[in-house]
Amino acid sequence: MNTINNKETQTKLAKGLLDTIILQYLEKQGMHGYQIITNIRKGFGVYFGPSTIYPLLGLLEKKGCVQSVWDMTSERPRKVFTLTEQGRSLLKFNENSLLMICQKIGSELTVKA
Fold first, then answer.
1. Which of 32, 35, 40, 79 is the least buried, fewest Cβ under 10 Å from its Cβ?
2. How many Å apart are CA 109 and CA 61, to the nearest integer?
3. DSSP string, 31-73
4. Contact (CB, 8 A) for 65 and 83
5. How far is Cα 65 from Cα 86, in angstroms, rounded to an integer?
6. Topology of 3-112 in CATH?
7. 48-91: pLDDT as tens digits
8. Alpha-carbon gap, residue 33 to 78, rounded angstroms
9. What is the number of other CB atoms lying within 10 angstroms of the CB of residue 59?
């Protein structure tokens, strides 16, 4: 597989798991949108811009998985997102589901080999 296909696959996988990735970052600490964008780029090597991240944060907030407060302490006010208990539950469910899927894929591959 060439590098372009690898990058494409990596981006597709990250996009499909973007809500879980965001919840994982917020489990560690509250963050504003730009911090999330840069962490994803550094951690996963893919770039999702504000037009992808902010609507997803809004949806997660609407579902009760994250909450936000305005941080007015810096020169530029920023909306800081934190994980709620409901978000923690969803994150655990997603992590367990992914683990089960990965184990299933692994066992299917060993059966065929």
1. 79
2. 38
3. EEHHHHHHHHHHHHS----HHHHHHHHHHHHHTTSEEEEEE-S
4. yes
5. 5
6. Arc Repressor Mutant, subunit A (1.10.10)
7. 999 999 999 999 999 999 999 999 998 899 999 999 999 999 99
8. 8
9. 12
**CA–CA separation, 74 and 51 (whole Å):** 23
Domain chopping of the chain, boundaries = 3-112
Measured distance CA(51)–CA(113) in Å, rounded: 43
Q: How far is CA 3 from CA 49, 50, 88, in A?
A: 22, 26, 35
